[in-house]
Amino acid sequence: MSFIWSTFLIICIVFSCIFLSPQVVVESISNSSKGAIENIFVIASMLIFWSGMFNILSNCSFLSKFAKKVYNFFSFLFKKEEVSEKAKEYISLNIISNLMGVGNAATVNSLKGIEELQKNNRDKKKLNRSMATFIVLNTASMQIIPTSMISLRTLYNSQNPSEIILPVISVSVISLIVALISLRIMWRYYE
Questions:
Q1: Alpha carbons 187 and 156: distance in angstroms, whole number
Q2: Own/partner pairs, 33-42, CB within 8 angstroms, 24+ separation
Q3: Which of 25, 77, 90, 99 could cross-link to 113 by cystine, CB 3.0-4.6 Å?
Q4: At what angle do helices 85-99 and 22-58 cross, to 10 degrees?
């Protein structure tokens, strides 16, 4: 795959230098690199902030109590015998992170959640139903406040960076419902 992308990139640069001036190509590469670095700083700062907040909150009892309430709302999706107390906490933290639109901060909790769910998995070579459901919840990533996108839109001087909230909520709810229904249908044939 890297060969294909490298070849594609070289062909694009050669054609750009032939049909445009080399100065335009160099300026374009420079500006794109600058934009990529700015995006990295914005996303990294959001990730650091929210990871720090979750770390602080996880050291006090507030987060564990709140996580239990969040899990109770989604508990019907999981099999009770497959989910430990620690897994419930990681699942809840992942859901909270995704609802707040900081999916990058959710990654750590999703990995730890899968590790905990794997401990109660009878067949270590296959996903159990709770693991599959958690992966779908994490991937569909229902968002109420798309924090990362709002900060990127702010970076690029959007007139109204928060105008995407309603469309993001609509799309994420629909995608989550479709994903969960698809999982239930596929799981019936899988078992």
A1: 43
A2: 38/155, 39/152, 39/155, 42/151, 42/152, 42/155
A3: 90
A4: 140
In degrees, rounded to 5, the angle at the alpha carbon of residue 33 between the alpha carbons of residues 28 and 35 is 95
pLDDT digits (tens, 9 = 90+) for 53-72: 777 777 777 777 777 788 88
What's CA 65's distance to the chain center, in Å?
23
**86, 116 in Cβ contact below 8 A?**
yes
- Band of residue 174 on the pLDDT scale cut at 50, 70, 90: very high
> Which residue's structure tokens are 């924090």?
147
Token pair in block for residue 56: 């602080």
Q: Cα separation of 183 and 101, whole Å?
A: 23
- pTM across the whole model: 0.69
> Rounded to an integer, what distance in angstroms lies between the CA atom of residue 134 and that of residue 120?
14
* pLDDT single digits (tens) 81-106: 888 888 888 888 888 888 877 767 77
Identity of the residue numbered 53: M
The answer to whether the CB of 114 falls within 8 A of the CB of 131 is: yes
